[in-house]
Write a sequence for this structure.
DNA sequence: GTTTAAATTAATCATTGAATTAATTTAAGG
DNA sequence: CCTTAAATTAATTCAATGATTAATTTAAAC
């Protein structure tokens, strides 16, 4: 039993440079920041909380990044963009038919989610919503290309008679994001609150691709009246 | 030109009960709060900013609502739920085929957006995302019914052979929200950044219903190889 | 060994935000 | 008219947050 006079917090680190080689602290701080930013939004996430999650003092965030804004920029530059850019480049040429393009998109999102589980929530909150803190920055970096690349591909498909009537090529980006990235951002909700434990990315992907492939009605019941 | 010694801010209200009958201030505060909450997220929206947008002092928020939490509850109780509940009730019986149910859903969302333009962004940010401030509260009030009602309807349709193969009835809620409410939350983005001025709710709705009706490939090019 | 650089904490500061209170003005009721 | 209640602002308080600095410990370099 610890003596009553020495509070002796269990594993409290002493002041000074640590013995063990903690050379990866910067990475751990970025990870903690990503999780916290995605969970509560960037504005609502305090540096104290992030530092605490990484087991250090908020002064370390100042030491490694300078200030909160620079931390956000580092996260975007070193984690977000490097993982999103390959997808954008892939989509410029992947697949032939519209459905194949959509499949490539869904697969790319699925891959990103597998490595960065916090990305969908952060993207939805801070990039896609009005007033999101990352909108300007991200749009300048990746997005000028992504929507236009995809739109051009779907427009070409329509010109070639490969796109179903009534589908707006320009709106396909919104539809694809809404069907893949967005559900991933709320996965815990759909899972727990709706009592569906089987909702993982593979299940979501096959469902979504079926929907994109032939819609939701069976041919026999379509327009029955 | 105003004299230099009297700053005399133009239309600064004097202290005390106002002459004109401003009996609707409480409503205006709720409106300003809704807009601000949707624009930056609840946590990041300051009472100062909300009060300023309504042209009054933050003390008025305390006067009418008590504290920020009560303001949020009032907004949910008096603006959100009354506008969302009718949709939930409609969906319990509207339409016959899955496509008709989806159409009723899309139309309901469209109607809500017309009256409360700020709702999609607020809903996506604070209800659907992990860590959203309204999740617990809203889920206890409306959501226990909405997803289950819709899921049951799509499951019945599948049992009746009206649902296309590969479609998961439980995931349809996520798909519908992702195709309707979610794009509405980011409408200004799709519009401005993608150079598509024609993106309004009617256009989005017809596109989405076409997608849900028959998928995105023309029958002739489906499975070409 | 001694010196120097790196990494870390504790402590502090300034700013902002939510919450509260006292004072003030006007409307309404008798 | 006089009194009372309602609505509003200015000013203040308290907690939390981002930012910063000085002190401290260890590793590395010579």
């Amino acid at each position: 039993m610890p003596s009553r006079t020495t509070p002796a917090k269990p594993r409290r680190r002493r002041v000074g440079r640590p013995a063990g080689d903690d050379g990866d602290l910067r990475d751990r701080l970025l990870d903690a920041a990503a999780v916290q930013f995605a969970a509560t939004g960037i504005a609502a996430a305090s540096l104290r909380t992030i530092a605490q999650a990484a087991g250090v003092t908020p002064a370390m965030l100042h030491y490694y990044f300078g200030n909160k804004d620079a931390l956000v920029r580092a996260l975007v530059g070193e984690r977000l963009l490097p993982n999103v850019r390959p997808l954008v480049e892939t989509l410029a040429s992947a697949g032939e038919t519209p459905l194949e393009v959509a499949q490539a998109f869904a697969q790319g999102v699925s891959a990103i989610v597998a490595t960065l589980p916090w990305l969908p929530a952060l993207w939805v909150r801070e990039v896609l919503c009005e007033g999101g803190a990352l909108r300007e920055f991200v749009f300048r970096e990746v997005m000028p290309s992504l929507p236009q690349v995809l739109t051009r591909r779907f427009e070409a498909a329509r010109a070639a008679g490969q796109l179903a009537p009534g589908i707006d090529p320009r709106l396909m980006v919104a539809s694809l994001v809404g069907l893949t990235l967005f559900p991933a951002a709320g996965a815990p909700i759909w899972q727990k609150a709706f009592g569906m434990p089987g909702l993982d990315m593979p299940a979501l992907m096959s469902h979504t691709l079926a929907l994109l492939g032939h819609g939701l009605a069976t041919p026999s019941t379509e327009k029955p009246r």
